[in-house]
Write a structure and sequence with these properties.
The protein has about 55 residues and is α+β, with helices and mostly antiparallel strands. The protein has one domain. The protein is built from three helices and two strands. A hairpin with a 3-residue loop joins strand 1 and strand 2. The mean pLDDT is about 90.
Amino acid sequence: VIVTHNMQQAARISDETAVFLTGGDLVEFDATETVFENPDSQRVEDYITGKFG
């Protein structure tokens, strides 16, 4: 388990990714490739593309 705010590091070293956002809510959990290339949540997409956070 690694906890990081560095999305590039998470994408590079993990097989699976969980994204927790404001309030500690688990927003998304999936294979890393899926989370970074085709996230289900717009909030996650905005975060990993740098639109907020």
